[in-house]
Amino acid sequence: MALPFLGMFHSQTFQQKAICVTLWIMAAKWEMEDRLSSESARQLFLRALRFHPECPKLYQEYFRMELMHAEKQRKEKKEFEQAKMDLGQFNYSEEVLNGEMARIVYRNATQKIKGSGFLLSLLSIAKLFDFTTDLQNEILENLQTEYTNDPLVWDYMARRELEMEALPVLEHVSKQSKALDMARKEERCWTVFEEAVTSLPTEDMWKCYITCCLERYKRKTNSEELRQKRLERILSVYSRAHELQLLPSSLYKQWLQLLMELDLRQKAEEIAAAATSRFSQLVEMWEVRLQLLLKVNSDGVARCFQEAFKMVNAKVSTYPFQLTACHSGFYGLNGVRVLTARVKPKRSISLHENRPLSLEFFKKMIQIEKEQESSKMFSIREYYERALREFGATEPDLWLDYIKEELTHPQGKPENCGSIHWRAMKALQGEQVDTFISKYTLLQTGHL
């Protein structure tokens, strides 16, 4: 199959090269699957690699093609042997049957392309074929020799323990035996991770360890003992990484959520405070801490606000605004939104404490949110809900404004209006009910 046009893009842009590589792969796949010509497919891959000698995708698909060809040959040979046919008329190469062509592709590929991720991708392809044990071992040896300080390799080796067969395949294996078997596999996995964080004490390595622990903890199990072991493991690993100051900032939120789920509120507050101390320049970390304090109705919210503003103003030059606030109700449970980059530059806001909070305070916050370039309805709802907790019994207009917001905001949900109306009728008293009914009727008829 002549495809000279496929070489036209070799000096073009990255996007054009990607398109061209895809075309080469499609052409080779067509030769292999539709025309049943592995040799033509092989020649196409070789030609493609002359134009794109360092393209991982080409090598991956070429590697896969050679393994598929070997598998096809092995199945054919087995069928002919079972039929007791004379194999002399067929040309079955032992090298092809054993995957040697794929091994050649692998070795050539690793001369051109470096990195553990690429080797792991080839290993994952090889694992799909049951005759590649020797090839898999070669890839594993290369990984462990050349990438001993790569977290991805340690992560793979640890997780590999979870896939090892331990119990014989039986029809009836008790749930208790299955849980015990899984516990043993996980212990072997943790042993590898423990060696990993000792040999490679980095944030990335601890992140791999924690991610795996968290995945196991979230897996369903009928064994309370196994679940408890998983919980103890994830809490221990989080704490140790934190104490070593090797817990990445991105993982604190997950840890705090877990502590809150376990009702360990005091511990969560302590960890949140330590996190903002270590990552004082990260606005997102202050948001996480403030969200937590607001959820637990802590008395330290106002003080935390002041600390956050001080750190933001002093250290984060990308937020060219000044903001002062002294009340825990300022932002709601969805985070300190005005601290984020979504605030328009050069806006200067000064809101002072007013106990109890005034209705105008909440209206101002709603207006600020609506002025954002990407206004979020879930934040607007939070402000309305907090305002209604304070003034819902006496302010019919507040209920009406909430309803209008659901009807007009791009992210609003008109189906929520019935529930808001029902709540308003329960909360309002006396003349306020009549006022609400009158104005709601005007709203329905388009006169308000």
Automatic annotation (TrEMBL):
Residues 187-322, 350-428 form the U3 small nucleolar RNA-associated protein 6 homolog C-terminal domain. InterPro entries: HAT (IPR003107), TPR-like_helical_dom_sf (IPR011990), Utp6 (IPR013949), UTP6_C (IPR056907). PANTHER family: HEPATOCELLULAR CARCINOMA-ASSOCIATED ANTIGEN 66, U3 SMALL NUCLEOLAR RNA-ASSOCIATED PROTEIN 6 HOMOLOG. Belongs to the UTP6 family. This is U3 small nucleolar RNA-associated protein 6 homolog C-terminal domain-containing protein. It comes from Phrynosoma platyrhinos (Desert horned lizard).
